[in-house]
Amino acid sequence: MTQEITWHVLNNAETVAHSALHRILVKAQEAISHRGVFKLVLAGGTTPGRIYELLSEQHQEWSKWHLFIGDERCLAIDDPERNSVMIKQAWLDKINLPAEFLDTNFHPIKAELGPEQGAGDYAEVIKPFLPFDLTLLGMGEDGHTASLFPGHQHNENELTHAVYDSPKAPSERVTLSKQTLARSEQVMILVTGSGKKTAVQQWQQGEAIPVAQIEAMNGVDVLITQDAMPE
Predict the structure, then answer these.
(1) Is the pTM of this model over 0.90?
(2) Cys staple from 71: which of 28, 37, 52, 146, with CB 3.0 to 4.6 Å?
C-alpha cells in the first residue's frame, strides 16, 4: 500500500474532465486486455458529471465494464439528488448498452433501504469484485471525500459505513470505507474551484482531513484546477 500522491495542476474544470476521461479510457483498455473486465468506482458532483457526459460519447466494450459508486444519499431510488440517477442521466441512458447491463454491470447502492441496511447490502455486492481497477473521488470544501466527513468515527474494518449525521443534507448516507477505497489499483481525486483552496492547503500541510487519508495500491493522482491550488 502506498500513499504516494501525484499532483496534476490543470487550467480549469473542463481540462480536468478531459484529462480524467483519457486516464479512464487508458485504464479500461489495460484492465480489459489483462483481465477481461474493468471495475470502476464513480463519484458524484459536477466535474464527475461532465466526465460521464464525455464517456457517453465514447464507443467502448461496455459489457466488460462494471460500475460502482463511492457513496450515496439515502433518498428515494428515483430522486434526482442521488448519484445513481445523475450517472444514468449523464451517461448510461445515452448509450447503446446490452439489455442486461443495468442489472448485471451497474451496481448502485441501495441507499433507499436506509444507512444500515444499505451499507450491509453494498458490502456484500462489492466483496466479489475487489480490488477495483480505478476509483474516482471528489473533495468538498471541508476536505471530505465520498461521504467520509471530518470528525466522523467509523469501524476501520468495515467495507462500507452507514452515515447518519452528514454535515451536508441529506444527513443519512452510505459510503465506501477508507479500507475499501484503498483496495483500488489507482485512485483519482478531482479538485476544482477556488473554494477548495483552504482544504488543499490543509492536505498539503499534512493535516488529517479525510481526503488526505486516502490510499491506493499504485498511488493517488490528484487532478486539480489552478484556482484550487494554494498561493
Answers:
(1) yes
(2) 146
Place of cell 481497477: 133
Which residues are 65's β-sheet partners?
Answer: 38
What DSSP element (H or E) covers 188? strand 184-191
Cα 139 from chain centroid?
A: 10
188 with 23: CB under 8 angstroms? Answer: yes
**Selection from 193, 202, 187 nearest residue 43 by Cα:** 187
DSSP letters, 96-123, are ---TTHHHHTEE---GGG-HHHHHHHHH
CATH of 5-181+202-228, one of 3.90.1580.10, 3.40.470.10, 3.90.180.10, 3.40.50.1360: 3.40.50.1360
- b/e for 203-223, b at 16 or more Cβ within 10 A? beeeeebbbbebbbeeebbbb
Q: How many Å apart are CA 171 and CA 66, to the nearest integer?
A: 28
For residue 122, give the C-alpha cell: 453494498
* pLDDT mean for each 10 residues of the chain (231 residues): 84 98 98 98 96 97 97 98 98 94 97 98 98 98 97 94 94 98 98 97 96 96 97 82
Domain extent listing, the chain = 5-181+202-228
